[in-house]
Write a structure and sequence with these properties.
Strand order of the largest sheet: 3-2-1-4-5-6-11
Number of helices: 11
Shape: globular
Helix content: 40-55%
Number of strands: 13
Bound molecules: UDP-4-deoxy-4-formamido-beta-L-arabinopyranose
Distance between the termini: 41 Å
Mean pLDDT: 95
Radius of gyration: 19 Å
């Protein structure tokens, strides 16, 4: 049985950390990435950690001919599908770009998979499918509401497409907020341009690349008025993808098609933006220039996971705490700036 697994968006933040763990677990990652939110340099970061340079094709998953050629060149047993735009705020400004890329890209991928008799997919989904949950912590039985952003809606629609297509074995992973970097500082979050996400904006402000951080909203119904999220270490999240591949394996690669499972991947703890700022300052000793600004459209007020289903069935549990997440992000930022 081939151990070749296609990793779309494999040079991205979560993708690259997952590729590192795939090598450690005997898989052969075949990366396709259009470099819209990553860089080819990441290949060398992966090599420095694993000693191996993964096979990489610079292509867009929306390019059906190019994607089909990859399946022709390799015996792909499963796909981990990361490739998508993922900024909540940006998706409010550019909804059509998000629907075209995120939903269109999945449809193209599934067509090529079917044409090549590949049925197994681990899908990168998101807690944003829940919108603003009424009950917290949120578990997988919580209603998938009208997401607060086009980004979240693309993930909801993609899960529905996967669910309706009984030709695939699907494990859909609903990420909460992945942050941090590999302990080697050889790979990490590499936002091109102005970061949309909180933690890279914090580290870029701390190192002097940005003048100050703006906290989007201080009048939410939370203890300190700022939004609450469930932040998890990207290395913990990478581990979950290996367990998801093993889960599909336990169902039978391609033997029993039409399987669909979802898992919430979070720590089960929520931290506010202000608590993240305070933890960053106390754990790194670096001061941070920040100010309070208006709310960001598309943001939900508070969300954190009930990860017990992933704990029980995948055997997955987060190991790193918020301090370790933020210190690893800071070490990575300093490494990037030392180049
Ligand atoms: C977190 C909090 C902002 C920037 C992310 C991913 C998304 C999904 C869920 C996987 C919010 C606040 C941010 C800034 C701020 N993950 N913030 N100032 O929006 O929860 O979504 O996790 O699918 O893909 O994008 O993360 O880091 O953008 O925001 O105050 O400069 O930080 O308002 O409350 P978000 P984020």
């Amino acid at each position: 049985m081939s151990k070749e697994v296609l990793v779309t968006g494999g040079l991205g933040f979560i993708g690259s950390h997952t590729v590192v763990e795939m090598f450690s677990n005997g898989y052969i990652p075949i990366i396709v990435d259009n470099l819209s939110n990553s860089s080819e340099e990441v290949l060398y970061g992966i090599k420095k950690i694993t000693g191996k340079v993964p096979t990489f094709y610079n292509l867009d998953v929306n390019n059906k001919t190019a994607l089909s050629n990859v399946f022709f060149q390799h015996k792909i047993q499963a796909v981990i599908h990361f490739a998508a735009y993922k900024a909540v705020g940006e998706s409010v400004q550019k909804p059509l770009m998000y629907y075209r890329n995120n939903v269109g890209g999945l449809i193209t991928l599934l067509e090529v998979m079917q044409e090549n008799n590949c049925h197994n997919i681990v899908f990168s989904s998101s807690c944003t499918v829940y919108g603003q949950p009424t009950n917290l912590p949120v578990d997988e039985s919580s209603p998938v509401a009208i997401p607060a952003s086009p980004y979240g809606n693309t993930k909801k629609i993609c899960e529905e497409i996967l669910y309706d297509n009984h030709a695939f074995n699907v494990v859909s992973l609903r990420y909460f907020n992945p942050i941090g970097a590999h302990p080697s500082s050889m790979i990490g979050e590499l936002p091109l341009g102005i970061p949309n996400n909180l933690v890279p904006y914090i580290t870029q402000t701390a190192i002097g690349l940005r003048e100050k951080l703006t906290v989007y909203g201080s009048d939410y119904n939370t203890p300190d008025g700022t939004c609450i999220r469930d932040y998890l270490h990207v290395c913990d999240l990478a581990d979950a993808h290996i367990l998801a591949l093993e889960r599909i394996n336990s169902i039978g690669f391609g033997e029993k098609e039409g399987h669909f499972e979802v898992y919430n991947l979070g720590t089960g703890n929520g931290f506010s933006v202000k608590e993240v700022i305070d933890t960053f300052i106390s754990s790194t000793g670096v001061n941070l220039n920040f100010t309070y600004g208006p709310r960001r459209e598309g943001d939900v007020e508070k969300v954190w996971a009930n990860p017990s289903k992933a704990n029980k069935i995948l055997g997955w549990k987060t190991k790193r705490n918020l301090t370790e997440m933020l210190v690893s992000a800071w070490e990575w930022q300093k490494k990037m700036n030392s180049k």
